[in-house]
Amino acid sequence: MKTPREILFERHQNAAPKLDAIRREVVWEGRRVAVPKFRVADTTTLPMLIWRELILPSRRIWAGLAAVWIFIFVFNFSRRDPAELLARKFPPSPEMILTFRQQERLLAELIGPNETQAAEPPKPFLPRPRSEERIETLMT
Amino acid sequence: MKMPVVAESEQLPVQKAREGKPEAWDALFRRYQLPLYVYVFELVHDEQASLDIVQETFIAAARHIGGLRDDEKFGSWLFGIAHQKVFQFWRKHNGKEVLFDEIPELPDEFENSPDDFLIRREQEAEFMSLLNQLPLPQRSVLLLHFVEDFSLEEIARVTETQLGTVKSRIHYAKCALRKLLEKNK
Fold first, then answer.
1. pLDDT tens digits, residue range B135-181?
2. How far apart are the first and last CA of chain B?
3. B72-98, pLDDT tens digit by residue?
């Protein structure tokens, strides 16, 4: 007595050499399975993983963004005031600072003291009937 | 005769195969080559076409192993690929032949064991003859049941059908086989 499985396998046992040849061809001779589509690399460290999963798939977008940032930086740099750059490059001497302060003082004396006018105190709010307010508005 | 062992999926080197190790692929294909061939041949009945389908299944498995989420389902996943290729073959060679059978409702009592059939030597030829007379969908599920002892859920996944349909197909196919075996006692 045999099970259906035993019967089926016995009937096709003669195909085994051909199947072995196919397996050899696919695995070893053809080398078709040695490089599967999804391959887990041995170096699955975090930087490698970030590089492979985040940067590499959208490298053109990253390159574009980098180019835009470089452009913005160059543009910003080129619009800087050259006098400011020169001032940073050559800081003023103590004599120059002294002269500048003297001139500032002289200018202040010529113009006079900078007095600020006191603000008018706010008028106290007196509630009036709405009808009076309206007449006043119309008259103006 | 040395037969491939059923239900050893947890020992299969699927992860190593995913890493691209040829030794692992060799072990996997060695395990499944004959069951796959039996399944394909009993549906196609053409030796060269069956060998081609097995080869194509191996290549497709190697290419798409990244899509397999559960390593324990490697067997049913591989048979699923072969099943699709068999039906592509059928469509190509038989045009729009109907591959679906009208299945009546399943009775309440349902047994499911591949070992409930024991066939005497003199019944073997008749068993094969009757198996080949079964409609293709019934033959397909019965072969998956006999060859790999897949669970009903796994057979449903391989054949991409409803669980209830799989149950019905197995039940009626088994009833037909049992009638034959009892008749010849």
1. 888 899 999 999 998 999 999 999 999 999 999 888 888 888 888 77
2. 27
3. 899 999 999 999 999 899 888 876 554
> What is the pTM assigned to this prediction?
0.61
Q: What is the largest CA-CA distance in chain A?
A: 127
In a domain, B159, yes or no: yes
Q: Which of A34-38, B44-48, B89-93 has the largest mean confidence? A: B44-48
CB pairs under 8 A between A and B: 120
β-strand partners of B119: A2
Contact: A12, B117; criterion CB under 8 Å: no
Contact B54, B82 (CB under 8 A): yes
Q: Which chain B positions have a beta carbon within 8 Å of A53's beta carbon?
A: none
| Residue numbers in A near B114 (CB within 8 A) | 3-5
User: Which sequence spans correspond to the domains of chain A?
Assistant: 1-36, 40-79, 82-111
Say yes or no for a CB contact (<8 Å) between A39 and B20: yes
Alpha helices in chain A (DSSP H): 4-11, 16-24, 46-50, 59-78, 82-89, 94-111, 130-139
CA distance B47 to A15: 9
Q: Could you tell me the CATH number of the domain that includes residue B176?
A: 1.10.10.10
Distance between CA B26 and CA B16 in Å, rounded? 11
Question: Mind giving me the DSSP string for B47-87?
Answer: HHHHHHHHHHHHHHHHHHGGG---GGGHHHHHHHHHHHHHH
Q: What mean pLDDT, rounded, does chain B reach? A: 82
Please state the domain count of chain B.
Answer: 2
